[in-house]
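Milestone M4 deliverable, item 7.
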Amino acid sequence: MTEQLTEIQHDPKVFEGLPFTWAALTDVGRSRQKNEDTFIIEPEIGLFLVSDGMGGHPAGEVASDFVSQNLSVRIEAALHSLRSPSPRAIRHLLAHSIRYHNQEVVWEGQSESGSQGMGATVVLCLLWDQRAYIVNLGDSRFYRLRKSRLTQFSRDHSVVNELIEMGRLDPEKAGGHAASGQITQYMGMDEQAQPHIRSFALQPDDRLLLCSDGLTDMLSENAIQTILCQNPSPQQAVQCLIDQANQAGGLDNITVVVIDWFGKAAK
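Output delivered:
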């Protein structure tokens, strides 16, 4: 049975002054018995987050839910106490929040019976002062669609991607590699987390996508780009992406968040 949780797109008038609208959907897929993906959206501060409980680790659903709920609270509190919200300060705030919360996941796993060693990926987007700040650990991804061109801003923390970056693996052969699915950075790791952080100035009509690997393992970037271009509303886009990933096999949980930015361009 398919498990779904939908965040309905809001009319901008519901939240006065917000220059974006969105939709989100998570689906158990066609092969898994439970959904270990979670997402959370805090529109008042422009925070969007997706977390994927890691397969092979105990209590994956506990880990992803802990990350979604508690990391968002930590970031919101830090933003409210930030004295100088410069881009550099915000990037530092996000990096510190990820590193500290990684240790909190470790402590939580040690305190809960049966949850020792729990882990989860995370990708988040913060829309702040007409800029998008992207942070990730693991292989959940962030894309920007601008003028019909899809660009990945997150970095896959995986053995396969590291081999590709070193020139030791052809990207065309990556799908069947023995190390597929092995993550090198994640929330709950014993070592200090090293999040990947990027930011960019937003432009009108930018479309943003956060997703778990249940989407990107099933659909090519060309297919994702086509769907995002052909579906005018965020609700239509997330539903079509979920449906197509399931039709392609649905081998994992699938979570998709689509955000449309209609505000002014950053100065």
